[in-house]
Amino acid sequence: MDKDKIDKKDHILDVAERVFADYGFDGASTRTISGEAGVNMAMLNYYFGSKEGLFLAVFERKIASFRTLLQNIGNDDTITTWGKLEKCIDNYVERIIVNNCFQKLINREVSMNKRWTLTDKITEILMVNVYEIKKIIEEGLTNGSFYSDIDIPMVIATIFGTKNYIINMPQLSSLIVGHDIRDEKFMEEELKPRVKAYMKRLLKAYLVNENDNSK
Amino acid sequence: MDKDKIDKKDHILDVAERVFADYGFDGASTRTISGEAGVNMAMLNYYFGSKEGLFLAVFERKIASFRTLLQNIGNDDTITTWGKLEKCIDNYVERIIVNNCFQKLINREVSMNKRWTLTDKITEILMVNVYEIKKIIEEGLTNGSFYSDIDIPMVIATIFGTKNYIINMPQLSSLIVGHDIRDEKFMEEELKPRVKAYMKRLLKAYLVNENDNSK
DNA sequence: CAAAATTAATCAAACGATTGATTAGTCAAA
DNA sequence: TTTGACTAATCAATCGTTTGATTAATTTTG
Questions:
Q1: Does domain A1-49 have CATH number 1.10.10.60?
Q2: Longest C-alpha distance within chain A, in Å?
């Protein structure tokens, strides 16, 4: 049945996502993935063409849903520019902490200088999401609610970089925060609201022109 | 000669550092390393025992050169707290860009779920630098020059995270900035001062209480 | 409708290439 | 001649991928 086929592909993607996240692209062998998924090794190539194709399929699936979320926020005319950015921050913090294994995987692979085709494809997919945030900040520039001399690329680096830092270096972050951030309860009840509140205040202080004459 | 041996080992470590940074631990083969270093493959095992031993040796060497950098800034009583932080920012931006290969290597290995002994070692070293910045911010809290309700751990995450983001994801950063950030001239003349200026203004907006009555 | 033809899905086995590591031996210096 | 630096050749293991065969499902045909 067609439904079964889709479920099977999805199941492979589920397993591959976890194995890639645990071992990295090179460290995760096709044998391990197919073994843990309970399918024949050749199925990976049959469905996804290659190991790289499988990786990209995992990646694309993860990133696509977030993209539509960002786009909906950006196109919402009922909220202010700053309100949009706040929504982005909330969603991004919420999301990246849920998917932190995957986030680590992305950073590890993109930070490689070689393997250009893979890196380029990942970058291309990530760039779409970056562009959505960029658009919002630019909107704040044109309607005067943000300071005119802000550095947009740097702001983006701060938004993504701050969260990546916490997620990618959990041992170090735990020492800095003074609590094991991998503790799920702490993460949910303490860290997430804290990161959200901090990011909003930080960016507001840098971006938002309180003396703006627009609405 | 003994001198030659040390030079040769050092040369291998130089090459290994770069190759590990480019390909990751798994992706970097011993053949590639020995090939680029112009030595026989067996020399790696001869000198360092194993691939992991070589990897550890790369770290040990780098770590040794890291130890004595920022501590003088914190103990300097002739500048304001904010001045100290500015100095730290300048120093880090300057430094991380020089050592960006190594920085990438650190981030990739720390983000791994495996290889705990190595991760702990790296975390310990990084924590020394983190602590120096933490001390400075706390000083600003006690002398009233910084707002009293700031989130110190998050500020640290922003300082390191923003920089790491730019360095670790050069392809993406280049697209965001609109110029290849691996271009050395651009990096030196444009990006470095830009990152420094941005970080200072961002943190000043968040941290510095302009109505402070201290000096 | 039923038989035949075609396609899709799955499998065990094996491919050539590459991995990290080791061996046995060379060679120069002491 | 003995020792330590060094090399070419090779090891078994594992890598991602491909193969040819088999089964299941679907479509076409008579």
A1: yes
A2: 64
